[in-house]
Amino acid sequence: MKKFRKRSARANLEHFRVLTARYFRQIFTNAGILLPLLLQAPVMVLILFIVADTTAFTSQNLLRANIILFMLVVMSALMGLLNSYREICKERDILAREVFGGLDVSSYVLSKTAVLSAVGAVQSALLFAGSLLFIDYNMPSPAVSYPLCFLTMILTNISVTALGLFISALLKKSESAILPVLIVIILQVVFSDCLISLDGAAGFIKYITPAAWGIAVFGNIFDLDTWPFQATQHDLYGLHPVVCLAVLAAFALLFLFLTTAKLKREFRQKD
C-alpha cells in the first residue's frame, strides 16, 4: 500500500507551478492540441450565426431567444467537457510513475483544472464576443449584464470541465468515455430547462445540470418569464444570479474534490 509523504504547502505550490507550466507548454507546442482548441469557439460562432435571429431580443421572440441562450450556454458546457474528459485517463501511466515518485495528487488535479479553465475562459470569451457581432441582446443595465453573462459562461464551462476530469479519473482508457460523455451531453441538452418543458420527476434533474443553472442567469437578466407567449414559468429564473453562479462554483468544487479523492484512493491501494 502506498504511503504518501506529508509535504509542505510550499512544495505542493511548486508542484502546481511546474505542472501548470508544463501543460501550457504542451498546448502551445503541439499543433494537434492547439488547433482544435482554437477552432472550437469560431466554429460554434459560425453555427450560431447561421441559426440565430439577430433581432430575437429586441422583438421579444421567446422561442428564438431561447435558442440563442441554449446554444451559448450549452456550447460553453460542451467545450469544457470535450477539453477534459480524456485528460487524466490518457496519461494514467505517467501519472502513476510521478505520484510514486513524490508528485502531489491535489497539485496535479488543480494544475489540470487551472489550465483547462484558462482555455475554457478564452473559448467562452470568443463565443460570447463573436455573438455580439451580429446579435442585439438589448440588455438592461449593460455595464452589469454583459460581465455577468460572460462570467456565467465561464463558470458553466469550468463546472462541466471539472465533471469531465472526474469522468476521466474514473476511466482506465479514453475509449471507455463514449457512454458517460454521451450521458453528460444529453443531460446538458435535454435538462437545460430552456427549449424543452420539464414536468414531474424530470423537472428535478435540472437541479443537477450545470447548463440549467447557467441559462437561469440569462433568464433572470432578460426577465424571460414576463415575455409574451411564455407557456411555463421557470423557478430557476426567479433566483438571484449570484445564487446560480454560486451553485455552478459548488459543482466545480465538488467534482474537483471527487476527482482528487478518487485518484488518492486509487494510488494508496497500489503496491
UniProtKB/TrEMBL annotation:
UniProt-listed Pfam families: ABC2_membrane
Localization per record: Membrane
Membrane-related topology note: Multi-pass membrane protein
Major subcellular location class: membrane
Membrane spanning stretches: 27-51, 63-82, 116-135, 147-171, 177-196, 237-258
Residue span(s) of domain ABC-2 type transporter transmembrane: 15-218
GO cellular component terms, A-Z: membrane
Cited InterPro entries: ABC2_TM, ABCG_transporters
The protein, known as: ABC transporter permease
Cross-referenced PANTHER family: ABC TRANSPORTER G FAMILY MEMBER 28 (PTHR48041), PROTEIN SCARLET (PTHR48041:SF139)
GO MF term list: ABC-type transporter activity
